[in-house]
């Protein structure tokens, strides 16, 4: 399924600020290859921002609990991890310390992976 231009642009913004993503050749085409914010599985993104693998945009602090579209709160995750977090954890964010720990770890991982967009 093709994603909208705005979504592809946002994915490319995340790629530009995530040091795990590198431009490389994959199956005969130039792509961005990086890692899921959760499990480190490889994610493949076309140079136009179209996910080739099942990459999704992860809101680390859930939107329903005040999470924003700020790049520091966004990462790329495989669909399985993103759906699992959303289904099992996001609704419990405010009242479950374990869920807040998960979010804190993901925010720390995002900061560790951060790169200046001009370096991409």
Description:
With 120 residues, this protein is an alpha+beta fold. The chain contains three helices and five strands; from the N terminus they run H-E-E-E-E-E-H-H. The strands form two sheets. It has a three-stranded antiparallel sheet, covered by helices on one side. A hairpin with a 2-residue loop joins strand 1 and strand 2. It is globular.
Describe the structure concisely.
It contains 3 helices and 5 strands; from the N terminus they run αβββββαα. It has helices at 5-16, 79-88, 97-113, and strands at 22-26, 29-35, 42-46, 55-59, 74-78.
- The succession of helices and strands, N to C, reads HEEEEEHH
Task: Provide the gyration radius in Å.
Answer: 14 Å
Termini Cα gap: 26 Å
Poorly predicted runs of 5 or more residues? none
Tertiary shape: globular
Which percent band covers the strand fraction?
15-25%
The main sheet orders its strands as 1-2-3
User: Could you say how many structural domains there are in total?
Assistant: 1
Structure annotation, total helices: 3
């Amino acid at each position: 399924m093709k994603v909208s231009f705005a979504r592809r642009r946002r994915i490319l913004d995340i790629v530009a600020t995530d040091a795990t993503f590198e431009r490389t050749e994959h199956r005969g085409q130039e792509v961005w290859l990086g890692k899921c914010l959760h499990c480190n599985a490889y994610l493949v993104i076309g140079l136009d921002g179209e996910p080739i693998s099942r990459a999704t945009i992860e809101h680390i602090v859930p939107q329903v609990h005040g999470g924003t579209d700020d790049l520091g709160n966004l990462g790329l995750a495989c669909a399985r991890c993103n759906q699992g977090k959303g289904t099992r954890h996001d609704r419990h964010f405010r009242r479950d310390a374990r869920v807040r720990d998960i979010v804190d770890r993901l925010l720390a991982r995002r900061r560790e992976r951060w790169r200046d967009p001009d370096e991409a």
